[in-house]
């Protein structure tokens, strides 16, 4: 059995839509990628899949269109998405209170880490806008695990990265995929509305508490054990 230090609380954050205002840049980037392959899909359908792993995301989207799926097409879509997102990344900004929330946890000595379904090539611009060096901070990306959300691998790896037992961690995310992954990891989920999902959707997926954005969560941090 792994000997974790005694930690009564820790926070594992999603990135897009949770700490950075990047959900809709990803939606538009996927729309451009799909259009580039002649695949017509409504923007709202794309939005509903943001937050899950890129491979599962493209599989589900292509299944909805009824098109044949092959690895070459999936690879092209991922490349097109990364290129399109790279052009949109200049507009990436942290969500209100994101930096302050992470700093408050650091000041209180509460461990935190980030687990994102994005690969490092798309996660890095958002992390940099947060002032986070992914080579030094506890960040786990899709590149580093076998499966991404809704599987629990990202958050299990993030907990291990900071040396805490997953049962002592809250998973903070903006999508139902984050909440499902939290439940499968046996962690408590905190939902944020800043990614476009509604409160009832997040609660049905397992969120213990739901806040508007990181700033709102920071104001209510004592409700989820955020104290010295």
Structural overview:
This protein is an alpha/beta fold. It folds into 2 domains: 10-21 and 93-224, 3-Layer(aba) Sandwich (Rossmann fold), CATH 3.40.50.1000; 23-91, DNA polymerase, domain 1 (Orthogonal Bundle). The chain is built from 10 helices and 6 strands, in the order βαααααβαβαβαβαβα. It has a 6-stranded parallel sheet with strand order 3-2-1-4-5-6, sandwiched between helices.
CATH fold description of the largest domain = Rossmann fold
- The helix content is 40-55%
Broad shape: globular
The CATH superfamily label of the largest domain reads: HAD superfamily/HAD-like
Helices and strands: which structural class? alpha/beta
Query: In what order do the strands lie side by side in the largest sheet?
Result: 3-2-1-4-5-6
What is the correct CATH architecture of the largest domain?
3-Layer(aba) Sandwich
| SSE pattern | EHHHHHEHEHEHEHEH
pLDDT < 50 stretches: 1-5
Give the strand content.
Answer: 5-15%
Number of strand elements:
6
What is the CATH C-level name of the largest domain? Alpha Beta
Q: How many structural units, i.e. domains?
A: 2
Through-space gap between termini: 28 Å
Radius of gyration: 17 Å
- Total number of helices: 10
SSE inventory with pairings:
Blueprint: E1 10-13, H1 23-36, H2 43-47, H3 54-65, H4 71-88, H5 98-107, E2 112-115, H6 120-129, E3 139-140, H7 153-161, E4 169-173, H8 176-185, E5 188-192, H9 199-204, E6 207-211, H10 214-219
Parallel strand pairs: 1-2, 1-4, 2-3, 4-5, 5-6
Helix pairs in contact: 1-4
């Amino acid at each position: 059995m792994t000997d974790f230090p005694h930690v009564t609380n820790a926070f594992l954050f999603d990135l897009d839509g949770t700490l950075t205002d990047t959900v809709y840049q990803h939606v538009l980037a996927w729309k451009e990628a799909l259009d580039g392959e002649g695949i017509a899909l409504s923007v709202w359908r794309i939005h509903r899949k943001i937050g899950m792993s890129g491979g599962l995301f493209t599989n589900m989207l292509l299944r909805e269109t009824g098109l044949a799926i092959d690895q070459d097409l999936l690879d092209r879509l991922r490349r097109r998405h990364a290129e399109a997102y790279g052009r949109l990344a200049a507009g990436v900004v942290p969500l209100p209170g994101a930096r302050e929330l992470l700093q408050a946890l650091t000041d209180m000595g509460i461990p935190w880490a980030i687990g994102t379904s994005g690969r490092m090539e798309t996660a890095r611009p958002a992390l940099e806008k947060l002032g986070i060096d992914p080579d030094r901070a506890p960040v786990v990306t899709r590149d580093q695990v076998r499966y991404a959300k809704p599987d629990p691998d990202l958050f299990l790896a993030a907990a291990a990265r900071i040396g805490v037992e997953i049962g002592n961690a809250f998973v903070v995310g903006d999508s139902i995929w984050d909440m499902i992954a939290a439940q499968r990891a046996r962690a408590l989920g905190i939902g944020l509305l800043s990614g476009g999902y509604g409160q009832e959707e997040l609660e049905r997926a397992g969120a213990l508490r739901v806040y508007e954005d990181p700033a709102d969560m920071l104001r209510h941090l004592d409700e989820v054990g955020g104290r010295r």
